[in-house]
Specification:
Layout (H helix, E strand, L loop, with lengths): L1 E2 L10 E2 L13 H11 L1 H9 L9 H17 L11 H5 L10 H35 L1 H14 L1 E2 L1 H9 L5 H8 L13
Antiparallel strand pairs: 1-2, 1-3
Helix pairs in contact: 1-3, 1-5, 1-8, 2-5, 3-5
Length: 190
């Protein structure tokens, strides 16, 4: 479901992703990356439409994307630079909360800074990819935007028909697949 109806919590638009038909407790790296691109799609569309100008409209999506990226890097161990560790477990003194190690005390500031850097890099890469998707699909963006202005929402089979028209740029495939088992940022420059 896609809507431009205002919602509570600061969201001016709304994208609903229904749960899969099966019970899922796992989120694979490629799914996580795809969700980040989706969450930042509204900001990317706004940036594209308004020639680089952005507003506060994507607040809720940015919050959700930041939370997801942080958990990927700092809790799920899905970042190659940070490695397979849980920052929350380290800062809490371990699984048994016995007080932590002196090594953690010396390295805490550096690791927190590194986590923030990696989260920002991951989010920027996802936004860059979302911009690539938007740029590759101006007709869909314009048509869907006009449809939403008139009808205020699109869902189900009607939304699926719009999504069939979307061209996935190579950057999207590269970012989603990434390097096996890691969340490496997309390199966008030469």
């Amino acid at each position: 479901k896609l809507s431009i109806l205002p919602r509570s919590g600061g969201a001016l638009g709304f994208t609903y992703t229904p749960p899969t038909s099966e019970d899922r407790y796992l989120l694979f790296v490629d799914e996580l990356r795809g969700r980040l691109v989706t969450l930042l799609g509204g900001r990317a569309a706004e940036e594209f439409i308004y020639s680089g100008r952005v507003s506060t409209g994507a607040l809720d999506d940015i919050r959700r994307a930041t939370d997801m990226a942080y958990k990927a890097v700092a809790e799920y161990g899905l970042n190659e630079t940070i490695g397979p560790l849980s920052l929350a477990t380290l800062s809490g003194g371990g699984m048994d909360e016995s007080g932590g190690s002196s090594l953690w005390g010396r390295e805490q500031g550096h690791l927190v800074d590194l986590v923030q850097k990696e989260v920002k890099s991951l989010l920027q890469s996802a936004l860059d990819v979302a911009l690539s998707v938007v740029r590759a699909n101006p007709t869909v963006l314009e048509g869907l935007g006009a449809h939403l202005e008139e009808k205020e929402k699109v869902e189900g089979e009607e939304l699926q028909e719009w999504l069939k028209l979307v061209v996935a740029p190579a950057e999207l495939t590269f970012f989603i697949r990434g390097k096996q088992g890691s969340l490496l940022p997309l390199q966008t420059g030469p």
